[in-house]
Amino acid sequence: MALTRCLYRTFNSKLKSKTFHFFIWEQQRNVYNGSRIVFREFGDPSKVLRMENFTLADDLQEDQVLVKMLAAPIHPADINTVQGVYGTKPDLPAVPGFEGVGKILKVGLKVNDQRLNVGDTVISTQIIRPPGTWTTHQIFDAVDIEQVPSSIGWLDAANCFVNPVSAYRMLVDYVALESGDVVIQNAANSAVGRSVIQIARTLGLKTINIVRTRPQINDLKNELTELGADVVLTDEELRYFD
Predict the structure, then answer these.
(1) Catalytic positions, please?
(2) How far apart are alpha carbons 154 and 156 in whole angstroms?
(3) In this structure, which of 5, 10, 77, 209 has its CB flanked by the most CB atoms within 10 Å?
(4) How far apart are CA 125 and CA 147, in angstroms?
């Protein structure tokens, strides 16, 4: 434990004529200046979101972790939450952001050092009542973050929980798929769709992927093919597919 100072005091008791020695230890306390996106009412994000500066002291509870955020994505669910139309609503004021990646600055006294340590790269995994990741600093309950290898880039780590996990569960939770089976999906160029393509390839599955017609459609087809897609069709091509 880091210490700011040790005070040594001597007290002479007149009652017992004895000398008592008191050692008072104070844990180091840091204060961080940060900024965050906040909304105090639900509505159009362009109207209700505000940037604000804040000061955060690292007075942690025993099972908490202080994290300096490095990157956080913007998901449709984040926008829906700000609008007030998502399945769950946070208490206001609130900081948006379901997931993100950061580095641990400090851990509480009872946080398992076999799992989390200062300097670790971690991701947020609490998606029911997230504390918000659109901020420079955040305090998490230790159970709501997971360590990720430092070899994973910030952008990949910031996006690795919500969509890839959804894709994986779709592939393994509902039907017992075997290597060589074929999966067909629409919205294949979405974040979940791209995850489905890559995870399916790892599992030995084939994918047929439907996307909307758009300019530079061949560029998109090539991009998805490079990720591992076996077939990419537009919705118009699917209507006339023989």
Answers:
(1) 86
(2) 6
(3) 209
(4) 10
